[in-house]
Design a protein that fits this description.
With 137 residues, this protein is an all-alpha fold. The chain has one domain. The protein is built from eight helices and no strands. Helix 5 packs antiparallel against helix 6. The N terminus is likely disordered.
Length: 137
Amino acid sequence: MIIPGISSIENSLEKPGIPVTIPDVARQPLKSLFCQRFDCAPPEYEQRAFKRCLYWHAKILAPLLQRVSPDFFALDMKFIHDLGDAIGSREASAEASNFQDANRARSSFWRTGLKIRVSGRKATALAHRLFADARHA
């Protein structure tokens, strides 16, 4: 079944003959959905999402580390930025996979051992939840 308001590309994403229906509201970037849900201005998105997606124990050290070593969370902030541009769950999952690969490539005791970083799993779960809520709104 093809639903009005859904592009033909979206209707043919999955399997031939079985349309995918993605409501127009779900086509908003994650950053917009996040700001609507958590009542923040778009310029606040990255810092708010960063704090929300940190491992709980990293939340304690993050403010100090950001002052002492401003680039310590550069990889995390890039991930949060790129995640904000995602317009669907698949893109969000792809960004999380890229983040995981980057963490493996830049492995360190702090990032991979102690997990003083953003949790890709928390970020992906948040993204999936926001996209699902937008689809069902």
